[in-house]
Amino acid sequence: MNPDNFPWLTTLIFFPILATVALPFIPDPGGKGRPIRWYALVIGLINFVLLIYAFTSQYNFADAGLQLVESYDWIPVLGIKWSVGADGLSMPLILLTGFITTLAILAAWPVTYKPRLFYFLILAMYGGQIAVFAVQDLIVFFLVWELELVPVYLLLSIWGGYKRLYAATKFILYTAISSLFILVVALAMAFYGPELTFDLRSLAIKDYPLTFQLLCYTGFFIAFAVKLPIVPLHTWLPDAHGEATAPVHMLLAGILLKMGGYALIRMNVELLPDAHAYFAPALIVLGVVNIVYAALTSFAQRNLKRKIAYSSISHMGFVLIGIASFTNLGMSGAVLQMVSHGLIGASLFFLVGATYDRTHTLILEEMGGVAQNMPKIFAMFTTCSMASLALPGMSGFVAELMIFIGLATSDAYSLTFRLVVVILAAVGVILTPIYLLSMLREIFYGPENKALTSHERLVDAEPREVFVIACLLVPIIAIGLYPKIITQIYDAKTTQLVADIRPSVPSLAERVNPPLASLNQTHAAPELPF
Fold first, then answer.
1. Taking all residues of the chain, what is their mean pLDDT, rounded to a whole number?
2. Which of 97, 247, 344, 449 is the most exposed place for a label (fewest CB within 10 A)?
3. What 3-state class would DSSP assign to 194?
4. Structural contact between residues 490 and 59, judged by C-beta atoms closer than 8 angstroms
5. Do 148 and 111 meet the contact criterion of CB atoms below 8 Å apart?
6. pTM
């Protein structure tokens, strides 16, 4: 078969899902799930290798349009199709999904309770998350968005901590109820005008009145704000992270939150550009609130998992600012921040799980002085924390710098507005190293807790754990030193996207920056050398 005509994305979506059919038939003599987890790991690796091959052989960096496109009629009478494709917005996140999920399977090695069901859910999520980033039909997008909730609910409620049922129920209520707004808006946009269609490209060229766009934007925003998450719709996340196991942490922080940021750009910005011009200042304000409020809340947390969870919420605030900046640099920084945070968040939560397996506590007051017993975990935890606080030379620094400069050079807002936003966002940047370094001090330094240091399980990292963190640190450092590794994948798309929404800037300027009401007064933002 010609590789150019091969259904790559459909294969990548359904292969891990169909592979779960064999799980009940895999013999497990010891009852500990050893052959089952090896099977799941092999399936994950095969799918990731196929993904890399499709990316390297079929994807063209210079093409801003959809690639690897497939379209098959599903329910023709309603205009619903199985339509998939990848562009610069979705491809980095599809690659991130394959990478994080494969490592999460390896991170789940200690799981021995109901291993068949556990790996069934992980592999089902694998295909479902790729589908979220690839489908180009709004109804199918809603379906895969909803189906993705079921594995997360079960993974939380069965393998979670003491309050797992509360956390799982809160997660499903928040996300399922908010997702109904996607269905309502999808139907409204599809039935508007003479043509009934759910195809995203067809919806993008429909001529919607401004009032209709604003209503649709609001509906989409509510659904995606929960998943991103945006304050005050964020409260499910600390509870979910507080009860999840390490591999589920990696999927939540590494992939699930990125679904909200991706959908916000794909649906709100790309389909409803005029409404985005009205909402953009509010997105920036909410981004600043996310950064500062979540950083302050993280500072006050005494539970290690909840501290890192609030740190994740804080970092996702930068995505909102980049999306609303109306500059190539800001939008590029928003995409890079999603990829960067996926890698950093997954590494930190994996290390939190590894630390808990040894100390059997998440309360910082009960820790202390464990660095001498666990020097490898100490070194890895410190390195990943440096990445999270945006140390130069790591991916977080580049992403946040691009967003800061993108907003600071945006001509869509007044100088006063930009200055205030940059200063307030910088407060969050300053708070991050304070609470992260304080966390490291309380875990690894200070007087030893004899109840911990004398515990027989307080052993250093095993080779599997070192390998997982090494795999995550390689792209974190590589992107930090040479960002073009990742930015070249989506530069063409983000440039086109910003060019498409720029005509909406005059309406924004008339409200927040009257002197710049004419588009002729705009100036291109300076580009960094990557």
1. 88
2. 449
3. coil
4. no
5. no
6. 0.92
